[in-house]
UniProtKB/TrEMBL annotation:
It comes from the Bacteria. Residues 55-94 are annotated as: Disordered. The lineage of its organism: Bacteria, Bacillati, Actinomycetota, Actinomycetes, Micromonosporales. It comes from Virgisporangium ochraceum. This is Uncharacterized protein.
């Protein structure tokens, strides 16, 4: 599923990682509740709300990682090193987890877009 891949890519985790499945479950549960309440009545609205819920969940995880890094004195404001192909290597994950969530989200979105352009 598109949103599973998005969350996994943005957090550099496997699609079946507990964090990824938790983010997806939360997004789906919230939309399901809105459907039951009659607030969501179209498939397109449900998709948009799921997408927004997954993005919010990813951002919240990134914020949590950054707060943990600040508590441990390892917070960083610099971008991670990139490979010769301009993409973020898996070895940069710990660096990313120490970045502010907005910066990390931007870096990972750019990384994901580069991967999409090369067909990986």
């Amino acid at each position: 599923m598109e949103q599973t891949d998005f969350a996994a890519d943005m957090l550099m985790l496997a699609p079946d990682a507990p964090v990824v499945t938790g983010i997806l479950s939360t997004a789906f549960e919230r939309v399901e509740a809105k459907i039951s309440a009659g607030v969501v009545t179209t498939i397109d609205d449900a998709r948009q709300r799921i997408r927004a819920g997954v993005q919010a969940g990813v951002h919240a995880k990134m914020a949590d990682d950054h707060e943990r890094a600040k508590k441990h004195g390892t917070a960083r404001n610099d971008s991670p090193p990139v490979g010769p192909d301009g993409r973020v290597p898996l070895t940069a994950r710990s660096h990313l987890e120490c970045m502010p969530p907005d910066d990390r989200f931007k870096v990972m979105l750019e990384h994901r877009n580069r991967r999409a352009l090369t067909g990986e």
